[in-house]
């Protein structure tokens, strides 16, 4: 179906070195997009995966812990490529502690990467698109904790609740200008961020008992949702959040 093809488009994915980011990058490349894989870690495995899938890609050094610098790097990459059509704000970190013990540093670090960087990158992306044809796609990676409270992850929950609100706000402002802003809310996916949960027998069992699909998700489960939201098939979707959660929210 041609509506799901991304041929000729350029997509920048943050945190593309591993996990969900890598899976999204490979899926977008398989659909025909040229990928810019952004982050401060080596992208060798991601670039190799894209090449194996027959896609094209380049790496972009970007430190999401410095949101202002990251936005500058996006603007530079956009100018070098002659435009970026798709932005995926995927990079995220998590810190765990009881709320009464949560440090200011752990609060600031998570908010800067998960929320502030997502806003400044989206802002830089939109400014560039408005100077070109005005059309583009922003896909934010939300979370089950965009809807729920969680435990021992105060800054992560706040950041992901903020990502959902930011998605809706930007959609309201930019829909009429040709930019679609939507979000994907992954359920419990087997990545480095959920390693602690999977290694805790009680938490692991409690999570699996609630998931109707009966399994942890794989990073690759998110790729198809990203391709859909990046494609022309989703041209009239604005401000939506798509849960990819094995049925978690339905229970």
Which terms would index this structure?
251 residues, alpha/beta, Rossmann fold, seven-stranded parallel sheet, 8 helices, 7 strands, globular
Structure overview:
It is globular, with a radius of gyration of 17 Å. Helix 1 links the parallel strand 1 and strand 2. The longest helix has 28 residues. It starts with 9 loop residues before the first strand and ends in a 7-residue tail after the last strand. It has eight helices and seven strands. The protein has a seven-stranded parallel sheet, with helices on both faces. It is an alpha/beta fold and 251 residues long. It has a single domain, classed as NAD(P)-binding Rossmann-like Domain (Rossmann fold), CATH 3.40.50.720.
List the helices and strands and how they pair.
Elements: E1 10-14, H1 19-30, E2 34-39, H2 44-52, E3 56-61, H3 67-81, E4 86-89, H4 104-131, E5 136-141, H5 154-174, E6 179-186, H6 195-198, H7 201-210, H8 220-230, E7 241-244
Parallel strand pairs: 1-2, 1-4, 2-3, 4-5, 5-6, 6-7
Helix pairs in contact: 1-2, 1-8, 3-4, 4-5
- How many individual domains? 1
- Strand line-up across the major sheet: 3-2-1-4-5-6-7
Distance between the termini: 33 Å
Report the CATH superfamily. NAD(P)-binding Rossmann-like Domain
Please count the helical segments: 8
Q: Roughly what fraction of the amino acids lie in strands?
A: 15-25%
What is the highest CATH level, the class?
Alpha Beta
Number of strands: 7
Order of helices and strands: EHEHEHEHEHEHHHE
Helix content: 40-55%
